[in-house]
Design a protein that fits this description.
Nucleotidyltransferase, domain 5; Alpha-Beta Plaits; seven-stranded mixed beta sheet; 16 helices; 27 strands
Length: 547
C-alpha cells in the first residue's frame, strides 16, 4: 500500500491529511496541532527565534512536531511514500532548513552586508531522510511548491488557484485570515500583495478563552430580539451547531443545548465584537456590562483586554486592505468581490466581518473558500501535473509585494486604527485624519448582495477515521545558568506559564521552557526580571518532550 501526507504549515499551527494514493487520493484521516511549535505568536517571532537560537534548534522542533503529527494517523512509516507541503515562504523555508534572513530583513543593503544568498524558491522535490523526517519512508518524496517571488509564497498561490478568483476576470481581493494575514488585490492581470502581522487574536489566541478552530470552540454568535445571544459551537466534524442561548450581561442560560463549549475561536471573537458594537454592549474601548465581560456559554467570556487584542488584529487587516487600495489607486467601488480563506475566513459571518473592518466596506459579493493551503497541498500530493501548473502560474503572474512594515501608507492608516480600537476615536475624526494625510475617507458600508460559501468547513473532508488533535507540540528548551540562585522569579512572572526552575544539585538549577507556550523573543520577560542577570534565552538547548 502507498499513502501520502498533505501538510499545511500554517503560522498558527499545522494541518495534515493522510491520503491513500492507491485509491485515487481518498482522504483517510485528518490530524492538526492546536498551535505552532516554535516560541512566539507570529511569523516575526518565529524568525527571530530561528536566528537567535539557531537553525539546528528551530528545525529540530519543527521536524519532531511533524513526526508526532504524522504519527497520529497510525500508519506504518514505510507505507508513507510522499509528502506535499504548502505555506508561506518563511514556514516552508524553516521546514526545509534553508536561508530565511532574506524574509526577515527588508532591503537589499542589509542582505548584502550580511552576505545573504537568496535561495531559489521554485517548485522542487526533496527526500524525507535529508530533512530528518522519521515518520515516513526514508526515501519518501517531498513535493515543495513555488513562490511567485521570494516574499509571495505558495500560500498566496493557493488562495489564488483554489478560490478560482482569476477565472472571474474582475477586480477583487483575497485574504487568508490568520496570524500572518496574507492578502492580495487583483486588477487587470496584476496581483498586489501584502502581509499584515495581525497577531494571534484572529486564530483565537492571546484571548482569555481563545483556541484554534477545533471541536468545542464557539465560532459564531447571533443576537436575539430579547437581548439574549445564541452561541454556535464547532462539533467533532468542525461543523457549527446551535449551542446555548445566554444573557451576555450575566451569563444566565435562557435555553440549553447538548452542545458543550470550552473556548472561542477567532471567528467567535469577531462575532462577539460585531454583535457587541451593533447592540451597544461595546462602546470602544469599554464593555458596558457590570463586570466588563461579555458572557457566553459554559462560563466562556470575552473581556475588555480581549476586545483590545482583537481590535489590534482587525485594525491591521483593515489597514492592509486600505493600503492595497491606495497603492493601486482605485476607488472602493471597483472591488467587486472578496475571497475569504483560512479557518477564520471559512467560519466568520461575512456581514459581521464587514462590521469589524475585516472585509472592504463596499462589495457586491463574498466567497468563503476554506483552508486553501491544505487543499493545495492535497492537489500537489495526488496530481503529478500540479507542481508544473503551479509553477506556470507563478511565472506568468505579474506581482508586486508591498512591505507593510516599511509602508508609510500602512503606518498612517494603522495609527488611526489603533486610536479607534484602543481609544474610541469617533468615526468622523477617523475619516478627517485620513483626509488630512492625503488619503480618501472610508465610505459608508454597502452590504454585499451575495455571501457565497464554497466549502462547508475549513477542512471540508476529514476522512472516514475523522479528526485527531496533537495536544502537545514543540519540545523543551533547557539550560543551567552559572549565576542562577533558584529564586524562581522568572517562573512566577512568565506571562504564559511556560517556564519552570528545577533544582538539579547543590546550588545548581535548571531552567526548562515549553516551546509551545513560550512567546519567544517578543517577550523575554524571563531575562528582564532576572535579579542576577543570569538568564540568557539564546543559550537554551533543545531536549525531547519527555525529559
Amino acid at each position: 500500500m502507498a499513502f501520502g501526507i498533505a501538510l499545511d504549515l500554517g503560522t498558527s499551527g499545522y494541518r495534515t491529511h493522510l491520503v491513500d494514493l492507491d485509491q485515487r487520493g481518498k482522504i483517510i484521516s485528518t490530524a492538526i496541532t492546536m498551535r505552532h511549535p516554535l516560541p512566539g505568536a507570529n511569523i516575526m517571532d518565529h524568525l527571530h527565534f530561528w536566528m537567535e537560537n539557531g537553525s539546528e534548534v528551530g528545525h529540530r522542533i519543527i521536524i519532531e512536531t511533524v513526526d508526532k503529527l504524522i504519527g497520529l494517523h497510525n500508519t506504518e512509516p514505510k507505507e508513507i511514500k510522499r509528502i506535499a507541503i504548502c505555506g508561506n515562504p518563511a514556514q516552508l523555508s524553516m521546514f526545509e532548513n534553508i536561508e530565511i534572513r532574506d524574509l526577515a530583513y527588508a532591503g537589499q543593503s542589509i542582505l548584502q552586508r550580511l552576505n545573504v544568498k537568496v535561495p531559489e524558491r521554485r517548485a522542487h522535490t526533496r527526500v524525507a531522510s535529508d530533512l530528518g523526517i522519521g515518520s515516513v519512508h526514508p526515501e519518501a518524496e517531498i513535493r515543495c511548491p513555488p513562490s511567485i517571488r521570494h516574499e509571495i509564497g505558495a500560500d498566496a498561490l493557493a488562495m489564488i488557484i483554489k478560490s478560482h478568483m482569476l477565472d472571474r476576470k474582475e477586480t477583487c481581493m483575497v485574504t487568508d485570515y490568520g496570524t500572518n494575514a496574507e492578502m492580495g488585490l487583483y486588477k487587470d492581470g496584476e496581483l498586489w500583495t501584502g502581509s499584515a502581522a495581525a497577531g494571534p487574536a484572529m486564530e483565537g489566541q492571546s484571548i482569555e478563552f481563545g483556541m484554534l478552530a477545533a471541536p468545542m470552540a464557539i465560532s459564531d454568535l447571533v443576537a436575539n430580539p430579547d437581548g439574549s445571544w445564541q452561541n454556535f459551537v464547532l462539533d467533532d466534524r468542525l461543523k457549527a451547531q446551535p449551542g446555548n442561548v445566554v444573557d451576555p450581561y450575566n451569563g444566565e442560560v435562557r435555553r440549553t443545548s447538548n452542545v458543550k463549549a470550552r473556548g472561542i475561536t477567532g471567528t467567535g471573537v469577531v462575532a462577539a465584537v460585531a454583535v457587541g458594537l451593533e447592540t451597544g454592549i461595546i462602546k470602544l474601548p469599554r464593555l458596558m456590562t457590570g463586570d466588563r465581560r461579555i458572557h457566553l456559554q459554559d462560563s466562556v467570556y470575552i473581556d475588555e483586554h480581549d476586545v483590545l487584542e482583537a481590535g489590534k488584529a482587525m485594525g491591521a487587516i483593515r489597514a492592509g486592505h486600505r493600503t492595497l487600495i491606495e497603492e493601486v489607486g482605485i476607488e472602493d467601488e471597483e472591488v467587486k468581490s472578496m475571497y475569504l480563506a483560512g479557518a477564520s475566513g471559512t467560519y466568520v459571518d461575512p456581514i459581521k466581518a464587514q462590521t469589524c473592518g475585516l472585509v472592504p466596506r463596499v462589495l457586491e459579493r463574498t466567497y468563503q473558500c476554506g483552508n486553501t493551503s491544505l487543499m493545495m497541498a492535497y492537489d500537489l500530493l495526488v496530481k503529478d501535473e500540479a507542481m508544473d501548473e503551479m509553477q506556470s502560474i507563478a511565472d506568468s503572474m505579474a506581482a508586486r509585494h508591498i512591505m507593510f512594515a516599511t509602508s508609510k501608507v500602512f503606518e498612517d492608516i494603522y495609527v488611526n486604527e489603533i486610536a479607534y480600537w484602543l481609544e474610541g476615536m469617533p468615526w468622523e475624526m477617523f475619516n478627517a485624519m485620513l483626509v488630512g494625510k492625503g488619503y480618501r475617507p472610508l465610505p459608508d458600508i454597502k452590504r454585499p448582495k451575495e455571501t457565497l460559501r464554497i466549502v462547508s468547513a475549513d477542512i471540508p473532508v476529514l476522512g472516514d477515521k475523522g479528526l485527531k488533535t496533537l495536544d502537545h507540540v514543540g519540545v523543551y528548551l533547557i539550560a543551567e545558568f552559572e549565576r542562577c540562585i533558584g529564586c524562581k522569579r522568572c517562573m512566577r512572572e512568565c506571562p504564559e506559564r511556560a517556564l519552570r526552575v528545577e533544582k538539579v544539585g547543590d546550588k545548581r538549577f535548571k531552567v526548562r521552557i515549553a516551546t509551545e507556550y513560550c512567546l519567544g523573543t517578543a517577550c523575554k520577560n524571563c531575562e528582564t526580571v532576572c535579579t542576577e542577570d543570569a538568564m540568557r534565552f539564546s543559550e537554551l538547548k533543545i531536549v525531547k518532550r519527555d525529559v
